[in-house]
Amino acid sequence: MSDLTDRLAEGLPPGALAVDPDVTAAYRHDMADFCPAGTPAVVVFPETVEQVRHVMRTATALRVPVVPQGARTGLSGAANAVDGCIVLSMVKMNRILELDPVNRIAVVEPGVVNADLSRAAAASGLAYPPDPSSWESCTIGGNIGTGAGGLCCVKYGVTSEYVLGLDVVLADGRLLSTGRRTAKGVAGYDLTRLLVGSEGTLGVVVRAVLALRPAPAPRLALAAEFPSAATAGAAVCEVMARGFTPSLMELMDAVSVRAVNDLGRMGLPESTQALLLVAFDGPDRVAELDAVGELCRAAGATEVVPAGTRAESELLLEARRQALPALDRLGTTMIDDVAVPCSRLAEMLDGVAAIAERHALTIGVVSHAGDGNTHPIVIFDAADAEQSARAQRSFDEIMALGLELGGTITGEHGVGLLKREWLARELGPVAMDLQRQLKAVFDPLGILNPGKAI
Amino acid sequence: MSDLTDRLAEGLPPGALAVDPDVTAAYRHDMADFCPAGTPAVVVFPETVEQVRHVMRTATALRVPVVPQGARTGLSGAANAVDGCIVLSMVKMNRILELDPVNRIAVVEPGVVNADLSRAAAASGLAYPPDPSSWESCTIGGNIGTGAGGLCCVKYGVTSEYVLGLDVVLADGRLLSTGRRTAKGVAGYDLTRLLVGSEGTLGVVVRAVLALRPAPAPRLALAAEFPSAATAGAAVCEVMARGFTPSLMELMDAVSVRAVNDLGRMGLPESTQALLLVAFDGPDRVAELDAVGELCRAAGATEVVPAGTRAESELLLEARRQALPALDRLGTTMIDDVAVPCSRLAEMLDGVAAIAERHALTIGVVSHAGDGNTHPIVIFDAADAEQSARAQRSFDEIMALGLELGGTITGEHGVGLLKREWLARELGPVAMDLQRQLKAVFDPLGILNPGKAI
């Protein structure tokens, strides 16, 4: 064993440390394709805050980089190893420490799986809204690191709205407590929200106080078929402008609809250019769904299918859930994550279609339409270098288009390695300068997840 | 004119600069009593971003402190002048630049009065929820600086949930743009939320992108009279535990109820120990109000008065609006702002009553009960030094009690000068160290609102 593993082992229980290359290789990267991934020197699985502090103290003493990881379901390479690093896998710190229905909070360790927290909350009549696609496997620590979103955000917002306080181990092993357990609090600068979305570059989350909400009613959904992105986009704008607050509003383009059909089970209309899925979960959901159905027809929908029951609703939404797996079957995929103002959604979709045509590539787009958050999925043959290069160019052009439309290069997936070069284009030199200085305050040696985001 | 005013005048229009001591004296402090206030060298009223940048460049060049101000309705001394400073009054930058119902955002200058934005939003079927008591006069810039709350927060949250992006002039005059115009975005560290609640110590907000919500239905309220803080607190816990989301849930103690009666008009029950006001503004509000009325009776309410109409509701809520003016008539007041977990509210109220008794003082308490955010108002005779000292001790003991109950020293008023010594007690040395370093990143010369908060 090396000096590093010897020193780490001093403060860790047996089995908390893996150096076998066959094991460590499994922890090299998250789910983003085409991001470089190094080889870790060691993977550590701490079970206590004190063990995490020991790891960080050791890393600081030896100047070894540390890459924190959750379930590695991320899509930006933010959890990718660098050569010789300590991978700090938080998956064994997976206890729900408190679940308090009066104060509507949960206190959790970072390795708790999103779905486990959601189910535990539901058992108490509560909900933890953030629901990334990977919710059955992704961890709360990873959600906090990326500032994860999901389908719920049009009504319920993103992870950062639900993080009240954090315990964080700093690069030098000090333990920082931020925020509060109360609904409100303005004592000092908001370090909590500075840490949410920081991709493990400022500290290692070891405990989180999360806000919960009362469980909503079962949602009721409709599907509406549109002849163009423009008509679908107009319907989305109308829904927002008329003051509706759906609990979900997803838009699938023709490519993703056809891909789902090809998967074999859905029987979606082949002729549609855009399929809009809208759900409500409030007390007026039946009336709201009716009204939105009418509004879709008025905006040009060729067909509107409202669900009469909860089961029918979930069946309609299954189309959306199948979109990513269906597109994945068509080739290698690069998933983009560009959010634009809702009113520019149609322009974004038409722009992506033009980029696909220009580069002779298939690009499917699923969107959290109510947030203007599009996920263009560029499909290509990774064995074909020339096609891969075109895919990369399309991916970049999609980000450029998003910025041009007043949007952001990342709505919810984060910067990681994938969009690092684009961050400066969005933020500009003044913000970049401050961000770099903030990083240096938390991590003066630059050992925490080096090379990511900033 | 001094070198300072000469240099300032070079980049400002005539009339944008006041040095007359009679004028500048009016800008010495906000509405917090008992906080030291210095004498500004000059008060500047910029009208453009470029003028603000000129002021900050000049301040940096001459190493002169700058104190940003809005309407000076703050309650923590955060806007108080320091001797020889430039007061930077943002009240003339008061334009609503955009109000966009599709994307549900407003873009505003910092001097826009909260009520003006609320009314403009309402005219478009939208709402800007944060509603501090001073909403008719306080500015959005001040709301952002303090992280202001209000009565709405139990359902709608605080200012920081509504700030999507900021333009900020830094201490050295550079212009920083943070955040986004989109519903979601995770590009880089969340500088926007770091700035919200930073009390003008990190930069000067010159423009804000704010999220709006669809306008709610007119609220329907009830009043419930309780024989003790414990029974009222139990009712509050039940409301939360059963998953209700009132749009307002306020609790007045016996002292504040009697003070409102003494003001002459309300005719509230003199015997009550706690008056709970609950309102709903959702589609189920009639049924919800009924259910909460029942629940209050079951928890021990001696009387429950539901409003049948919107007008009756506003009449009931008038009691709450009169509480602060009514208490102000009884003597000099120090308004505290301690938030505790909802479940500890009754303990907090009983604890405050015990502190009042121990110090032989009158302390009235109004609370945003759904948030656990209490405002104990210590009443005393400022001409009596011994009584003033007891008042100060009570004020401190109230904060200590809040921390003991798992709360925070400030739910929504901020730290300013008033609670500066207490901040370190809440945050601890690690967080304080980081906060000081963050301050130094933004303001290395320490010229921005020196001596406040951190």
UniProtKB/TrEMBL annotation, chains A, B:
Transmembrane segments: none annotated. SUPFAM superfamilies: FAD-binding/transporter-associated domain-like (SSF56176), FAD-linked oxidases, C-terminal domain (SSF55103). Residues 36-215 form the FAD-binding PCMH-type domain. Keywords: FAD, Flavoprotein, Oxidoreductase. It holds the Pfam family FAD_binding_4. Gene3D superfamilies: 3.30.465.10, 3.30.70.2740, Vanillyl-alcohol Oxidase, Chain A, domain 4. Its cofactor is FAD. This is FAD-linked oxidase C-terminal domain-containing protein. It comes from Kitasatospora putterlickiae. The lineage of its organism: Bacteria, Bacillati, Actinomycetota, Actinomycetes, Kitasatosporales.
